[in-house]
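G., the chain you wanted modeled:
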Amino acid sequence: MNQPLQPFNYTLNVPNPAEAVTAGLQQGVQLAGLMERADLTAAQRQQTLIENQALQAKAQQQAQQQAAVKALYDKPSGERTADDYERLSATLPKEQAENIRASFDAKTKEQQRQELLFGGQVFAALRSGDRETANSMLLQRADAARNGGDGAQAKAYENAAEMAAISPENAEMFIGTTLAALPGGKDFISNVSAQSELRTNEGMAP
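Predicted structure as tokens:
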């Protein structure tokens, strides 16, 4: 029996890197102080060390993600490449990245192709500034998912549709990042980028 598909998470939790690093260091200092207590057992010291390393790794991951987001936003939409989105997708929290991949892997080959095609079409609409089309496409998918009994997936599409309507640049980034995290998704982004560049060049031609 197939496991229920998990909805794509179209949002990134991106904290301020300075705050993340500071918080991680502060907690690390606190843990280091605990390690110096004479009444801690060896097992407790080992657990404290593991927790300290986890905090530092989390702070570093958050800082890397924020840097990747900034690098993407610093580029005009039309100049963002598939590699830019791939670098950002590499900073996704492990659980979120695994959830996206598991949802995709649970689909048939044809469903995967349709999912990539749909994501590419929504991404292209957002890339061209057509938030209305992107919003409409996502809402139609939400209705289809709900009619099929998949309320969780419908909610994910509705959230993405709302983002497309309110903040299309964020929606473009989130959907591009999700595509880049999927096998073959990078090719769809590259195709959209190439078409966008072609239209720009045609518009500049005398």
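Residues 24 and 54 are 9 Å apart (CA to CA).

Shout if anything looks off.
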